[in-house]
Amino acid sequence: MKEILESLEARRELARAGGGAARVAAQHKRGKLTARERIELLLDEGSFEEFDMFVQHRATDFDMDKSHVPGDGVVTGWGTVNGRTVFLFAKDFTVFGGSLSETHAQKITKIQDMALKNRAPIIGLFDAGGARIQEGVAALGGYGEVFQRNVLASGVIPQISVIMGPCAGGDVYSPAMTDFIFMVRDTSYMFVTGPDVVKTVTNESVTAEELGGASVHTTKSSIADKAYDNEVEALLQMRRLIDFLPESNTADVPEIPTFDDGERMDMSLDTLIPQSANKPYDMHELIAKLVDEGDFFEIQEAHARNIITGFARIEGRTVGIVANQPLVLAGVLDADASRKAARFVRFCDCFSIPIITLVDVPGFLPGTAQEYGGLIKHGAKLLFAFAEATVPKVTIITRKAFGGAYDVMASKHLRGDVNYAWPTAQIAVMGAKGAVEIIFRADIGDDDKIATRAKDYEERFLSPFVAAERGYIDEVIMPHATRRRVARALAMLRGKMLENPWKKHDNIPL
Ligand code: HXC
User: Which long-range contacts (CB under 8 A, 24 or more apart) does 31-35 make?
Assistant: First the structure.
């Protein structure tokens, strides 16, 4: 018996050794951890239950029958993060470069099926060279199976991808269909085709970093939601993110104990809005003062910074925050900001996360670049996302809510549940000067007349009260009482029931 136990332990040791000491050392030398080291950091200590440790590929071409490593380049299983179950797979770059074979794919799809059946989040840690070249079409089939499961799980369980090394070819599309992608600076990159193919096809010379590094994907392409300086930080932040997320679309949002009183007032908010309407202020300050302990997990913070999206908590329960940022482009809505916020709103709506919308928006960004870039359809995405969302929606207009952007930003007309405005709010079709120059075109050139008319317009329309007179605003509130008002609104909305008409699915303007 002892021998049998020892032989099991020996087999386990072999599997745990991955591609061997030399390849592990090379991995470390590049500043990367091994798949198992990553899992240890991500999960609660001792909680990892591994599956399929002894799975081996069945390929025979190119002498592959002479080369087997138990586990076949991916470590899979489940464990807990702060006591809550998550499923995961971690590509092992030390084994065939983490490349995907038929059996490697089967290990992943087994975990995807289990995560979906048991309604718990799934996390993929990527560090791989794409399809196992020796296997050809069997690897392509494997990818297809993974992709199909990504789609079926979308909107049912949270799916998270962390890119911690190369991620190319077939490996990029599974992350692309998950809810969030995170990267590690300097050691990770993502592209469909690498620098060599790019050179051959388009004659462009680029490095891997220039083509698909973390900075490209968090700023330019917006493929990745955030980048971290190193793997340890990335994995610890994933634990923090998981704490915000419900297990599935039928689970309630997590609730954690908080010492931050929902009744807390913040008198400094009464002076947040500058005297001049054209002066910016930092919407992050309002977010920090509004949410529990100022704890905010920002999503896509480096892209389209004129809108802020992320998770926070009010009275211990997760909320999604969508906020115009007056500090960047005056908080205007452009194509990038609209797409960014629309995707975030839809994630929240999938997973029953209430949405708090903080509004200070001068409108949509004019110009040929925006119009040619499809602003109409991108703006419509955000409009569509807010309008279809059935989760509790609490909206605060702090200053400007002009034009179509007023409607879009979770207005009463898009089924906002509780819509408040600060006394500094200006809810109107446009700013005073623009409005007066259109209505009183004949007066242009007579500066005094235009100034008087603009003042009249401001007094009449640039306030929250015209909207409040119509019930578009439920109440004009004191800025210092914002947290209390929002907390009470969310508590009242806990039993909200709202369903959209039956449909196979909607047709959001993609
Ligand atoms: C089999 C692979 C592999 C692959 C790497 N390896 N990629 N084995 N299939 N796709 C192996 C290498 O042979 C090597 O084995 C080990 O992994 C480490 O690779 P290196 O090249 O030494 O590492 P490095 O210099 O860091 O380069 C990493 C890399 C490079 C940039 C990822 O390996 C590479 O370009 N790989 C090929 C990428 C690729 O073209 N993949 C196919 C994409 S097509 P040893 O034994 O020496 O340690 C695709 C289509 C699917 O994915 C589409 C589905 C929709």
Answer: 31/186, 31/187, 31/230, 31/231, 32/93, 32/127, 32/164, 32/165, 32/187, 32/231, 33/164, 33/231, 33/232, 34/92, 34/94, 35/74, 35/75, 35/90, 35/91, 35/92, 35/93, 35/94, 35/125, 35/127
